[in-house]
Automatic annotation (TrEMBL):
Record keywords: Lipid biosynthesis, Lipid metabolism, Nucleotidyltransferase, Phospholipid biosynthesis, Phospholipid metabolism, Transferase
UniProt-recorded name of the protein: choline-phosphate cytidylyltransferase
Reported function: Catalyzes the key rate-limiting step in the CDP-choline pathway for phosphatidylcholine biosynthesis.
Source organism per UniProt: Cyprinus carpio (Common carp)
SUPFAM superfamilies linked to this entry: Nucleotidylyl transferase (SSF52374)
Ranges of compositional bias, category Low complexity: 289-318
Ranges where the Cytidyltransferase-like domain occurs: 54-182
Similarity comment text for this entry: Belongs to the cytidylyltransferase family.
Top-level taxonomic group: Eukaryota
One family name in Pfam for this protein: CTP_transf_like
E.C. numbers: 2.7.7.15
Pathway participation: Lipid metabolism; Phospholipid metabolism; phosphatidylcholine biosynthesis; phosphatidylcholine from phosphocholine: step 1/2
Catalytic activity as recorded in UniProt: phosphocholine + CTP + H(+) = CDP-choline + diphosphate
Length: 343
């Protein structure tokens, strides 16, 4: 049993290391390898070895669509062991076209996918029975759309007829062709981007005239960005001024209401100031008013026996008022004569 476990690769349980490469020789699994049906594999049998699933492709510009397809293939059966075959640059350029990534870059991209247990380099374009037996493959996983290539309407047709094909679903909206189309469509944008990042015109295969045009456009974009930044800062400054002005007006209104309230409370009809004036006026009137005589003081005696005080020497004689102008002049002359006698 220990020998079987040692010689039969098992699915990865940790992700601390990349997937292994398939050895050049045949599969080293020495456990009995009977042919399985899809129903048997879904039940989790056999217990002495995993179900070996093979998925192949180009995997150029490895993206989420690739990863989702491999995730489906890995989880087709309870004890699945996923082998991913990657075609070489020579085969790919011959049957499909030029790739962005080299074969070594594509190999390494697959090795670091969490669903992959083993990467088979230089995979064949068409699967033969000899290849399937050599690597003890139980099932082949791929999307169910017929794949016409190398003079065949569907390179997986014989696999489907043998009952070894299990379909996966494509992820809509993402593919290597879509990514390349985006780059070609926005070629000028990416060329300017890389020039700005330090790549030379020779590295980008850009002509002298286009290089100058792209650099001028980059300068114009930088100027636009500066203007946009200034505008944003100005808008922010104006907003802050408006916000502070609103706060100041609100505070001024609150202080004004408070001042008016205090003023009315102090100087209003029933205000504190009026009460203070009334209290002070009352105290002043009380201070200057004569005090009343004591009730037990004897009454003053106005008896006729007491002689009145002698008249003052300056007291003027009481005369009756003149009845006519002549009488008034006569009285004035008599007063002047009396004054001369005194002198």
């Amino acid at each position: 049993m220990e020998e079987l476990e040692h010689t039969c690769p098992l699915p990865r349980t940790t992700l601390i290391e990349p997937a292994i490469f398939t050895p050049e020789t045949s599969c080293e699994c020495r456990a009995p390898h009977e042919k399985l049906t899809v129903e048997q594999a879904r039940l989790g049998t056999p217990v002495d070895r995993p179900v070996r699933i093979y998925a192949d492709g180009i995997f150029d510009l490895f993206h989420s669509g690739h990863a989702r397809a491999l995730m489906q293939a890995k989880n087709l059966f309870p004890n699945g062991y996923l082998i991913v075959g990657v075609c070489s640059d020579e085969l790919t350029h011959k049957y499909k076209g030029f790739t962005v990534m080299t074969e070594d870059e594509r190999y390494e991209a697959l090795r670091h996918c969490r669903y992959v247990d083993e990467v088979l380099r230089d995979a064949p374009w068409t699967l033969t029975q000899e290849f399937l037996e050599k690597h003890k493959i139980d099932f082949v996983a791929h999307d169910d759309i017929p794949y016409s290539s190398a003079g065949s309407e569907d390179v997986y047709q014989h696999i489907k007829e043998a009952g070894m094909f299990v379909p996966t679903k494509r992820t809509e909206g993402i593919s290597t062709s879509d990514l390349i189309t985006r780059i070609v469509r926005d070629y000028d944008v990416y060329a300017r981007r890389n020039l700005q990042r330090g790549y030379t015109a020779k590295e980008l295969n850009v002509s002298y005239i286009n290089e100058k045009k792209y650099r001028l456009q980059n300068q114009v974009d930088r100027m636009k960005e500066k203007v946009r930044t200034v505008e944003e800062k100005s808008k922010h400054f104006v907003y802050r001024v408006e916000e502070k002005s609103h706060d100041l007006i609100q505070k001024w209104e609150e202080k004004s209401r408070e001042f008016i309230g205090n003023f009315l409370e102090l100087f209003g009809p029933d205000g504190t100031w009026k009460q203070m004036l009334q209290e002070r006026s009352g105290r002043m009137i009380q201070a200057f008013s004569p005090r009343g005589s004591p009730s037990n003081s004897p009454p003053r005696d106005f008896s006729p026996s007491r002689s009145p005080s002698p008249p003052s020497r300056w007291a003027m004689p009481r005369t009756s008022p003149p009845t006519s102008p002549k009488g008034a002049s006569a009285s004035i002359s008599s007063m002047s004569e009396g004054d001369e006698d005194e002198k």
